[in-house]
UniProtKB/TrEMBL annotation, chain A:
<dbReference type="InterPro" id="IPR050415">
    <property type="entry name" value="MRET"/>
</dbReference>
<dbReference type="GO" id="GO:0016491">
    <property type="term" value="F:oxidoreductase activity"/>
</dbReference>
<dbReference type="InterPro" id="IPR012675">
    <property type="entry name" value="Beta-grasp_dom_sf"/>
</dbReference>
<keyword id="KW-0411">Iron-sulfur</keyword>
<keyword id="KW-0001">2Fe-2S</keyword>
<feature type="domain" description="2Fe-2S ferredoxin-type">
    <location>
        <begin position="229"/>
        <end position="314"/>
    </location>
</feature>
<keyword id="KW-0479">Metal-binding</keyword>
<keyword id="KW-0285">Flavoprotein</keyword>
<dbReference type="InterPro" id="IPR036010">
    <property type="entry name" value="2Fe-2S_ferredoxin-like_sf"/>
</dbReference>
UniProtKB/TrEMBL annotation, chain B:
<dbReference type="InterPro" id="IPR016084">
    <property type="entry name" value="Haem_Oase-like_multi-hlx"/>
</dbReference>
<dbReference type="InterPro" id="IPR009078">
    <property type="entry name" value="Ferritin-like_SF"/>
</dbReference>
<protein>
    <submittedName>
        <fullName>Uncharacterized protein</fullName>
    </submittedName>
</protein>
Amino acid sequence: MTGTWTTLEVESAQPCATDVLTITLVDPGGHDLPTWTPGAHVDVDLGGGLVRQYSLCGDPDDPRRWRIAVLREPAGRGGSQRVHDAVRAGGTLPVRGPRNHFPLVEADRYVFVAGGIGITPILPMLRRAAALGRPWTALYGGRSRDSMAFADELRGVPGGDLTLVPQDEHGLPDLPAVLGSPTDRTAVYCCGPEPLLAAVERETAHWPAGTLHRERFTATPVVAEGGAFEVVLQRSGMRLTVPEYEPLLDVIEDAGVEVENSCRAGICGTCLVRVCSGEPDHQDDVLSDDERERGEVMLPCVSRARGELLVLDL
Amino acid sequence: MVDVRNVRGGDGLEPIRAEIDELLDSVVASTAQATEAFFASYDEDPDPARLAAWLAPRCWREIDYVYLLNEEIARYGMQFERRHITLLAKQSFQEAEHYDMVGKAIESLGGTVPTSVPAEAEPWSRFLWECLDRHPLAAVAAWNLSETSASGSFEPTFRGAERHGLAEVTRIYKRIETDEKFHVGLGLQMMSTYVKNDDDRAEILRAMRGMRDIAWKTFTPESVSAASA
């Protein structure tokens, strides 16, 4: 099952691009690993309280090994440094998963946009699209040619149109060229740094809702998870402080304002409230991408604020 | 409004998503039709004992879920994430509350709250437990379809209860309606998260197809007549 930790052996740990380490993991007993699908990730326990998620970027049809790729991020919180400094072939790593929150949906054609290490979930997706015989277009940007992992593997995938965009040679990827004209039954997948995601979101704003599927591989620039913020309940005329780690719904109820609810886990949607202003930090499991993007409603049982103030229609 | 069928989880159900949606839609429609038929018959013969008898298998489902959910946790819980154990336990608690609430409604109508499986609910209960024995996700699939079937009964129940001034029945089922969104979403999330292969998917479809043929039947007026015979 995917929810339990398993210790896997590091079969190999090799650089595949500047500051990118590719790690293959196998079962120490030689058994098959759980199956996975493109877009899946695993949790890796790096010790010292560092648990990180990495996309699987190998071959889903190879049950013997998983592959991940890790970019060294000197300004990160220590996870990637530890991988680069301590993970070696023959060692072991506790791993949990795989899980897939970024699955490849059925579509007639695909557009993939990747930035830097964001290529990792895209690579197996692109291969799957090719295997299905669906036309695909991929735009892959990176700081420099040497920093772009898996470029050779990508060139070997048939049936599509791949454009590599090293920034030091060609500048930023030309998004309007691939996203300017919406096409029917097309799925757009994007993974990369926040500015790229924001740009792709802008370029696909006129595409049908649900077209864009994206995964952030760096934390969004928001207040820390669990950070305190203020909430104004507009109809009740209350201003409340939501302390770190205390659910917004608890604070609202403690103030004597009733909100119908059931699961308090972001699943049932019963506590849905309208957001008058402020930006929700959605943590639920049930709102659609479109609802999340619009930010007009939220589930206060699990979701919080991206800024210092939320105003709710309560 | 939020659609719990879109709950996020893994992508394990994607290959069978279309059939699952079809099964769920089908049982909602069957249950709605059966409930409409019951309240149409109740309009002609508004005997509180008949309504109490109609509620009895509903009531039993609630307590049977309590037993089943706890057995699911006992047998398979350590294969799931901790949050899913917590949420299964929460669902179990809510089902116990529903057993109590529907029980009170039955008593208010002069009926008797079931303390063992009513004859008309036996096929449903037997199938559910058989699914639990077969596979960790089969019982989840069976109860998920059964819970979804109940959602087809709510609107006809509210309309029928309103026609007969049964405000307490409406209040109780409004509460149950809310909780069942959670239960349906949880089941779908667990299945999509933990299904690993085609064998798992086959077990899920077997459980859902089997329950589709059973779940709606106790909502019919004929079921009540057979129970009273």
